[in-house]
Amino acid sequence: MALTLEQVRHVATLARLALTPEEEQRMATQLSAVLDAVEQLQSLDVGAVEPTSHATLADSLLREDVTRPSLSPEQVLANAPAKVGTSFAVPKIIE
Amino acid sequence: MQLTDLSMLELAEKLAAGQVSSVEATRACLERIQRVDSTIRAFLRVDEKGALAAAEASDARRRAGTPASALDGVPVGLKDLFLTEGVETTAGSRVLEGFVPPMDATVVRLLREAGLPLLGKLNLDEFAMGSSNESSAYFPTHNPWDVTRTPGGSSGGSAAAVAAREVYGALGTDTGGSIRQPAAFTNTVGLKPTYGRVSRYGVIAYASSLDQPGPMTRTVADAAALLQVLARHDPLDSTSAPVKTPDYSAELEGGVRGLKLGVPREYFAEGMDPEVEAAVRGALREYERLGATLVDVSLPHTRYALATYYLIAPAEASSNLARYDGVRYGLRAKDAKGLKELYALTRERGFGAEAKRRIMLGTYALSAGYYDAYYLRAQKVRTLIREDFTRAFQQVDALVAPISPVAPFKLGEKVNDPLSMYLTDVYTLPCNLAGVPGLSVPCGFTKAGLPVGLQVLGRAFDEALLLRIARAFEREHDFFRRLAPV
User: Fold this and answer.
1) Which UniProt keyword terms apply here (chain A) (predicted)?
2) Is residue A10 part of a domain?
3) What's the gap in Å between the CA of B295 and the closest CA on chain A?
């Protein structure tokens, strides 16, 4: 299946990637080749097959709902590229 | 023999007997790293201070007669995908450059508690996406057996460091073969445990339903000993299995007499390197000689595993990698105007080509209109692949097969052709999709002196049997004793 440049740009927007024009071109070629290769799955009849999302556990195991020590706000913010007080700073998005 | 040529257990024996100290062993590793790592490039960063402090503490425990574990004092390395408190962790990516975790991954904590000095962080394909170590944002790692070749990936730094005797053992992660393939490429032992056997808490996620950490060592007995430290239920990981940990070393010498070993016919497909096939076939004959029965089995959906994996893994990756947005940690595009541009520019600059390819592929497979045709269908085929294994294990005790259709390839040979690179994973991926354990043990060399590995696959949580099967071969052939020429 050949991906158009327009489709590549749409997927890049969904993925929050600002691809360069060269990358868009390369991505169209390479992803088309991979999608061609995965096309073989269409030949299987999977109508009655249940999907597997996890290999060995049917359900997630949950811990007891009790309060435990956690990271401090200082530790959480220590790697932030920008912060204001005890908050992560981001560019202004409202006028 | 150099101190660094010892296996983990040989060193542990000397430590216990007081013939050598952990500080001496750790210094020997640091000197070895100093001498060979400019050629091998396995390390992203060495934590000399931390390793020596841990070694001193270990020696103090040995002197007091209170070792923390059988491996107390044995220095090891970590793939740079494991969070290490206070030590930069990048996942081989620019997007995480400068990230210093505030905590340890559970397995890192377990290693510390068992007294193993941690020598540093080892190179990998960016976010564990790759089969050659060339997608690391920093530099490619070289194979100690032939430095013009790749050590495999994505745990290539771990494999190369073990093979080059810079560390006694290491941790890797295996999402589609990332422990077993580099182990095969470097004449080392690599074990991907059953999904859920070893905690993934604090391991940077690539594809959450497939990723599994495991040991990479020079001998099967070392793999058993290291797994003993790592395998336990972790309440911090909801996918960690609440199952009992057996004594992996206890049954190691049990041999293979009377075992039924399945040979999956789909794992010997056309296009396989004849020298690789010859080495693997030789190992199979050896098992027969040792008293196992070889049984021809079929895993009919193997041919669909590659396509299934390359839809499911990128889909999960596209979701997991959404967290790298320039807000909480790592790189930030400082010139961005507005939040959307901050995300897009940060990710554009932070991710390398392979990560972007997989994010794009995964986003596409999950997007409206394509979800049913790609992602959901792949999940259903995953069920068929799992059922293949279930049926096979009704007939046999374990499966024996090749790891990779090819020997270690040249650096640069496949890097611009993603499909050709993906094809090298064709025999390792089904194991991850099914969640069963898999092991790679050295089984020979090509005429050019390149290592070949044998894969042993087993039932869920049957790692002890895999180790026993691998050990039976290792006892007869000392391929594992050959040292890489570095």
Assistant:
1) ATP-binding, Ligase, Nucleotide-binding, Protein biosynthesis, Transferase
2) yes
3) 26
Reported as a pLDDT band with limits 50, 70 and 90, residue A60 is: low
pTM for this model (two decimals): 0.96
Annotated catalytic residues of B are 79, 154, 178
Classify the phi-psi angles of B129: left when phi > 0, otherwise alpha if psi is within -120 to 50, otherwise beta: beta
**Phi/psi of residue B20, nearest 5 degrees:** -150, 155
Q: Looking at the domain assignment, is residue A61 inside a domain?
A: no
Residue B381 in contact with residue B304, Cβ under 8 Å?
A: yes
B chain contacts of residue A49, beta-carbon cutoff 8 Å: 380-381, 383-384
Q: Does the pLDDT of residue A58 top 60, yes or no?
A: no
Compare all CA atoms of chain A with the CA of B325 and give the residue at the minimum distance. Answer: A16
The residue of chain B nearest to residue A71, with distances taken between CA atoms, is B102
Helices A21-38 & A5-14, crossing angle to 10 degrees?
Answer: 100
Q: What is the tens place of the pLDDT at every residue in B128-173?
A: 999 999 999 999 999 999 999 999 999 999 999 999 999 999 999 9
Interface mutation target, options A10, A17, A29, A75, chain B, most CBs of B under 10 Å:
A17
| Total tally of structural domains belonging to chain A | 1
ipTM, 2 decimals?
A: 0.94
Residue B362, C-beta contacts closer than 8 angstroms, at least 6 positions apart: B311, B313, B314, B315, B316, B317, B318, B319
pLDDT value for A57: 60
Residue B312 contacts residue B210 (beta carbons within 8 Å): yes
Nearest C-alpha of chain B: how many angstroms from A3? Answer: 10
Most B-contacting residue of A6, A23, A41 (CB-CB within 10 A), to test interface: A41
Range of the domain at A18: 5-42
Residue matched to tokens 């494991």: B82
B48-79 pLDDT, tens digit per residue, is 999 999 999 999 999 999 999 999 999 999 99
Q: For residue B464, what are the CA distances in angstroms to B56, B378, B427, B430?
A: 33, 31, 22, 20
User: What is the domain-level CATH number for residue A38?
Assistant: 1.10.20.60
Residue A51 belongs to a domain: no
- Contact of B423 with chain A, judged by CB distance below 8 Å, is answered with no
Smallest CA–CA distance, residue B144 to chain A, in Å, is 31
In a domain, A23, yes or no: yes
